[in-house]
Structure formats: C-alpha cells, structure tokens
Amino acid sequence: MMEYHAMSIFQYYCYMAGGCREMGYIPICPTGDRCKILHYGGQSAPNDKQTRDGDLCLFDMGAEYHCYLTDITTTFPVNGRFTETQATIYNVVLDTVHAVVNKIRPGFTWREARIVCYRKLLSRLVQEGLLSGSVDEMYDAKLHRVFMPHGIGHFIGGDVHDVGGNASVWCWSDTEVKDIDWYDPDLEWCPLQKNMVLTIEPGCYFNHVLIDPALKRP
Questions:
Q1: What value, to the nearest 5°, has the Cα angle with vertex 23 and ends 20 and 28?
Q2: DSSP string spanning 136-154?
Q3: Cα 56 to Cα 141: distance, rounded to the nearest angstrom
Q4: Of the candidates 61, 148, 132, the residue with the CA atom closest to the CA atom of residue 100
Q5: So what's the pLDDT on residue 164?
Q6: Strands (E), the chain
C-alpha cells in the first residue's frame, strides 16, 4: 500500500460516513523514516512512499464540516504490532500527552503547558534509559528541542491553526521572546478559558539532522 492509498481511505470515510466533502488541510501521511519530516505530504512530498512491514504510520489528518475543522494525529504500526522499541517511544509520548491534559484548566497559560510537556518528555526519556542526567539541566539546555522540534498544539475551529488569544497580554520583552521555545503569540501568555478548543500533540523524533549536531555540543 502507498501512503496516498491510506490518505484516500480517510478521505472516502469522512465523506461516506460523515458527509465531510472537504479536508481541513492536506493530509499528512508519512510512514517509516519520513515520520520525522514535519508537515510532510504537501505538494513537494505528496504522500508517495510505499508502506513497509515494521514501519510506523504517523497520520495527521482532519475533515471539515460546516466550516469547522478537525486536526487528529495518531501513530500506529503498519503491520498492527509495535516492536518493543516502538511501543516504548509511543508510551513516552502518550504519557506526555496525559501529563499536559491533566494539568490544563481555565487560567492555565500555554507557556505553563509547554513547560509541563517538555519536562515530562525529558523525564520519561530518562526513565527509559535513553537520556541520563538532570532533567532541570536538560530543560535549561533546551535538549527537548532535539527530540520535539515543534510546539505542543494550537487553537482549532474555523481554521486548522485558528486565531485566538488576547493581545493585551502580549507584554514580553525582547529578551523574553528569545528565551521562549516555539512560542505562539496567540497563545503564549493567554490564560486558557472554558470552551476554548486546542490540540495537544507532543511528539518524539530521532532525527540525525538534529541529534548529530547536539552530540557535538555536550
């Protein structure tokens, strides 16, 4: 099966079962080593790899219904069975998701949510023996960026990356901006409110483009 075959099954099901004629965005359907390419699947990489036994699928897809959009990301093995290593990393990310979801509440800021996310990811990697040392020192050194080179989510609704937040709380200095990891000006200092809809989508990638330079800067 090709990646675009899986994409077409999703599109068919959304229309057939839910009446969703349009997608919220171009489906992102990488498998195998392409899972480490963020926003893979666009015009320059059109989900055109053949899936292979032992690969993981990292599918990021969502439908549009009456002008409201969804954004759902999931990871699963092509053959239906995780290897021990795959299951370990899957559970590291799943535990990180649960840590953030369990903390979020009205009044909690996105900055606080990011800190929970990155520290949990690092601590779980330490627990699994993939990293060693102090989580505090790793966080201060921004080691989480090596394994999760993106933010933890975004508003969703009228657009897949919907607008939101409150400009009156944009009060950081230039120094603070430089110290922020993957900040989203719509969210960074915005206290979350009841009925806000956001995605929580941490990840863990082993990409030599990021890991090799990090190893040269111990």
A1: 140
A2: HHHHHTTTHHHH--S-S--
A3: 30
A4: 148
A5: 66
A6: 22-23, 56-61, 63-65, 68-69, 72-77
Tally of residues, the chain: 218
Residue 61 burial class via C-beta count within 10 angstroms: exposed 0-12, middle 13-18, buried 19 and up: buried
pLDDT of residue 165: 55
Tell whether the model's pLDDT for residue 112 goes beyond 80: yes
152-155, Cβ contacts within 8 angstroms, sequence gap of 24 or more = 152/100, 152/110, 152/113, 152/114, 152/117, 152/200, 152/201, 152/202, 153/198, 153/199, 153/200, 153/201, 154/71, 154/184, 154/187, 154/198, 154/199, 155/186, 155/187, 155/196, 155/197, 155/198
Average pLDDT over residues 168-178: 46
Question: What single-letter DSSP state applies at residue 216?
Answer: T
